[in-house]
Amino acid sequence: MSNSDVLSEHISRQRETWLEEVNEWLRIPSVSTDPGRRDEMLAAAEWLVKKLDAAGCQETAVWPTEGHPVVFGAYKNAEDAPTILVYGHYDVQPEDPVEGWESPPFEPTVRDGRLFARGAVDDKGQLYVHVKALETWLATRGSCPVNILYLIEGEEEVGSPNVGKVVQEKIEKLACDAVVISDTTMFAPGLPSLCYGLRGMAYCQIDVSGPKGDLHSGSFGGAVVNPGEVLARLLASCRNAETGAVAIPGFYDDVVPLTPEERRDWQGLPFDEDAYKNDLGVAALSFDSDYSPLERLWGRPTFEVNGLLSGFTGTGSKTVLPATAMAKVSMRLVPNQDADKIMDALEAHLIECAPAGVSLEVTRMQGAPAWLAPRDHPVLLAAGRALERGFSAAPVYIREGGSIPLVSLLDELLGVPAVLMGLGLPDENAHAPNENLSLENFYGGVASAVYFHEELAKL
Ligand code: BES
Ligand code: MN
Ligand code: MN
Q1: Is the pLDDT of residue 4 over 90?
Q2: What's the whole-number mean pLDDT along residues 422-439?
Q3: Please, which residues have CB within 8 angstroms of residue 433's CB and are 6 or more apart in sequence?
Q4: Which of 367, 390, 410 is the last residue in one of the domains?
Q5: Which atom of ligand 1 is the closest one to the Cα of 199?
Q6: What pTM did the predictor assign?
Q7: Does residue 151 share a domain with residue 81?
Q8: For residue 1, what pLDDT is reported?
Q9: How far is the CA of 367 from the centre of ligand 1 (A)?
Q10: Ligand 1 atom 19: residue of nearest CA
Q11: How many angstroms separate the alpha carbon of residue 157 from the centre of ligand 1?
Q12: What pLDDT is stored for residue 128 in this prediction?
């Protein structure tokens, strides 16, 4: 039997066992933002350590941080061979709204070849591929052709506030030749994708307060400035309604224009605007006449309202002039934009526009730069060959609109290429009810990771 056959036979034989393992992990509600789930976070970290040990790591550890711990693992028996660092996250987003789930979020269920559970695709299920890839080598060949380090954090979904410090402290242990991440998506089913760019993030909360307390909207409306209305006006002022462009002064100052080459390449991707609208259940897309939807998603910065709160929102009606209004806002950044500078620009704009009679507070919550890598690095090309073998289709090169805060720091501190081998699909509902993972992509992902090790060792 050829080497590839032996490896893929192991993957086929282990399908059920691996699914059971993933299910066990997914049953642990590792919601990083929920202070009531600290024990579950630790349990999820310790579960992973056991599996890294079982897969064949010689060294594992749970590194404490000021927040949730970081899991480390190392297989280092491949002498004179390259070392890869697998980065991922074992924390998940909150499960709400629970009513939206067809099966409970922490009771993994398979339907139509997809595994439904919070964390299935983002990122527990997806990253587990790289644990099983090591197991596959050791179980079939007794050794792995590359050294593998695992750095799996528990705070990615809250902006990775603590892992950066750990990376700096442990930098010697983390020395490697490439970073590998499976925490993004494939452009379409059956179309493996290498992601070479992510947007950055500036996230903040805006609070507008007016009178000391809520007021009768008849007795006081007309005389008192309404914080709910002020907030609506402030948010609306952040976008030019005619052009669709963000209207915060200075917002685009540092944006590097997309190259004609990149725009042309993206035009070649199989994107169908009507199907996209149809899938989302919307009649029209937000607009910016100068840029196509993919360009707006991947290559342009945005201003988005993530949440709004003010006044009476229960059933029925109540006449009230609210004392306060609050919004959570994210601005996705592109390369060369600086999160602090963008938040300064937003704050200055809001202060400039806010009327007398209310006070305004902007609380900065998360900031991370964008990441963009060259598309022709030999390591990336090796990953492309591996994906082609694993999925029997040539990969496409894409960027993503989402953010992985640590990637640009890893790039900076380790100075090695990062390979983003996304195994998710665009309709897998990350962060939403009915999050799921295609099992075909999971098993194909293990095969691709195994082939990637082989391709890397050949370089
Ligand atoms: N896995 C995602 C990042 C992602 C999203 C990649 C969509 C590709 C497509 C990651 O877990 C995530 O959700 N990141 C957050 C970061 C934020 C909390 C700073 C995001 O993008 O909102
Ligand atoms: Mn993720
Ligand atoms: Mn996420």
Answers
A1: no
A2: 97
A3: 95, 97, 98, 99, 100, 101, 102, 105
A4: 367
A5: 21
A6: 0.96
A7: yes
A8: 63
A9: 13
A10: 159
A11: 7
A12: 98
